[in-house]
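Input sequence (489 aa), recorded before submission:
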Amino acid sequence: MDRLNRYLNPIERLGLGEMSYRFPLFANLALCVLSETYAYKIAHNPFIVGVYIIFLNIAFIIYFSFRDGILGGLISAIITIIYYFYIIYTRHYSGQQFASSIDTIIELGLIYILLALIIGWLKQTMDKLIGREANERIWLQTILEQLAVGVIITDNKGKIVQTNRQLENILGVKISKDFVIGKDMPTFPVKENKQPVIPAQSPISQAIKANKPVVGKEFEFERKDGKQVTVQVNASVIKNKKHQVIAAASIITDITQQKELERQKDDFLSMASHELKTPVTSLKMFIDLQRQQLQTKNPQKATYFNERIQDQANRLKELINDLLDVSSIQTNKLRFNKEKFDIISVLHDTVEGLQATTKKNEIVIKGSNSEKVYGDRYRIYQVLVNLISNAIKYSPNSKKIIVSSKKDKKNVVISVQDFGTGINKTQQNKIFERLYQVTDPQEKTFPGLGLGLYISKNIIERHHGKLWVKSTKGKGSTFYFSLPLYNKI
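Predicted structure, token format:
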């Protein structure tokens, strides 16, 4: 029935630009046949068709002109005129009646044709206007769908008339077209500056009420999937030529990542200033103490303080190098001096140097005696130092750290195993992120900027390798990295 209604109802065809000649042709021929059948077979009076057929023909001309444009109207009008001549011929009009009928047909024919042209032209003009509006809607929707921000367009009462897909991505839900902003409550609580927001406080409602734009409003909410989202909302009214408000539009920008970056930046500045302050303060203290010992001619203590100064200077150097490395990674300017070298030799040298820095941990080496790789010897040494130093730092009550090497067909795999605090599963995917530090409310926070693993991961990946971790909370962690063997590259 719906399909039949769309075919017969001329209003349903507006804007489609479809014009048919078959339906007007066959429908008007059928009307003529039915009229003749009625006149001869039912009414038994050939002259009875004279009055009612005029009204039926006018109705058909109007209908087909509105349904199929000028073409449909003209076909209906021409068939009607021909049928009138057929009536004169078959009824054997003569004399004054014949002349009068011819004049009437000519007058009616001109009216019919004029009616078909006018209504048909109006129909085709409406088709063009509706089609143009439909195209503009498609263009507008296409543009809206390409935007990286959410868009809401409402009428002047706040009822939503159009949105885009990005809005659904931001909100995590699809908003019904029946939703009225400023009246209906959203499915999730929205807050501004930690305070609940009522519908009347929405930017679109404020813009419509105040008849001016609302800019830079920030709101927070939790989506149904649990994700915390922060958005920035701008709203403005749309006016017609008479400066009357006919609609309103709102732009919703997801600034969650921006806010997180700002938070990380603030955290980084706080951590960096704290971490840099510690060695600088220690340097100043040991320099003052060393000066005092030199003045009292106590070279033994002066030498001790000189070693402490060197330790703090090295610590300061490491922090600065980490900051420079992160900056180089972000700008893709981290440089490598690659060569063929024995990674096991570098591993032994690294362990020997770090073993001298700790008396509570024994660093045990297991595995092969020689494996050749192609890469930057210093950068791989930097990764080993970071992993083993972390194992020492996060194993305050453990006595052993195991550094192992093994190989498969294409790679050498180095692992650093500790028996310390371990890492929660929820944190294992985050520890390689920039500025991320493993923390536990029940444990002390270890010093550092949270850059070491981030830098190490980038170094290993730039060597076409992988860096990963396996850990159990309370039982320790094992960090692995793989590098392609030289003869397999």
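Checked by second reader. The chain has four domains: 2-143, 148-254, 260-330, 338-488.
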